[in-house]
Amino acid sequence: MTSRWGARLLAGLLAVGVLSGCALLVPEDERQAHYEAFLEERSELRDWSVRGRAALRADGEAVSLSLRWQQRGESYTINLSGPFGAGAVRIEGQPGQVTLRDGAGQSATAQSPEDLLAAQTGHRLPVTALRDWIVGRPAAGLGVDELSLDRAGRPDRLEQAGWEVDFQGWTEVDGMDLPSRVDLHSGSTQMRVALSGWSRGDG
């Protein structure tokens, strides 16, 4: 028969499992090794897609967008739209060339998504880095100014290129933990990205 103390302990362990997304908790001195395995696992992740919602606040303005991101190697397609599909745009990119098309058939081209969005919206957003942040890893080619790990050896918070990136939740997709929410902050610009419908590979 389970003692009252044992029952409380079991309940506490179950609660920790729920709050951590059922991830395996590892001792602090082993987290770095788990993090390195975490990064190695993602080094093979080249093709994926995800749906979600992004809430952006900058310079006193706020906007909420639906998004669908498809990544195929170095090429990507990002579909964005406002409430009820208003203001839909499609961004298609590869290294050195990015094109934005709106629902009226108008298009614009730039060498990077940052340049393109800055020209079209006045805001410079870290789209290139977000490609890595959105799958839970530091952005390639940028120094990491700060990094902290959670109790499962996954990134909890990192700083790169003036952006603070907080991983607020995780979901398991075919045996791999992928973010379910990422919060970004730089100066007066804040962005929250809630993610769902993850698919790995060509799905």
User: What is the strand tally?
Assistant: 11
The total number of structural domains is: 1
Major beta sheet, specifics? Answer: 11 strands, antiparallel
Distance between the first and last residues' Cα = 48 Å
Mean pLDDT across all amino acids: 86
Radius of gyration, in angstroms, nearest whole number: 19 Å
Stated plainly, the CATH topology is called outer membrane lipoprotein receptor (LolB), chain A
CATH superfamily: Lipoprotein localisation LolA/LolB/LppX
> Which CATH-level-2 architecture?
Clam
Strand content: 35-45%
Quaternary structure type: single chain
Strand order of the largest sheet: 6-5-4-3-2-1-11-10-9-8-7
Summing up helix and strand content along with how strands pair, one would put the structural category as alpha+beta
CATH class: Mainly Beta
Task: Count helical runs.
Answer: 4
Share of helix among residues? 10-25%
Q: Give, in order, the helices and strands.
A: HHEEEEEEHHEEEEE
Explain what you see.
Helix content is 22%, strand content 45%. By secondary structure, it is an alpha+beta fold. It has one domain: outer membrane lipoprotein receptor (LolB), chain A (Clam). The radius of gyration is 19 Å and the shape is globular. About 8% of the residues have low confidence.
Provide tags for this entry.
single chain; 203 residues; alpha+beta; outer membrane lipoprotein receptor (LolB), chain A; eleven-stranded antiparallel β-sheet; 22% helix
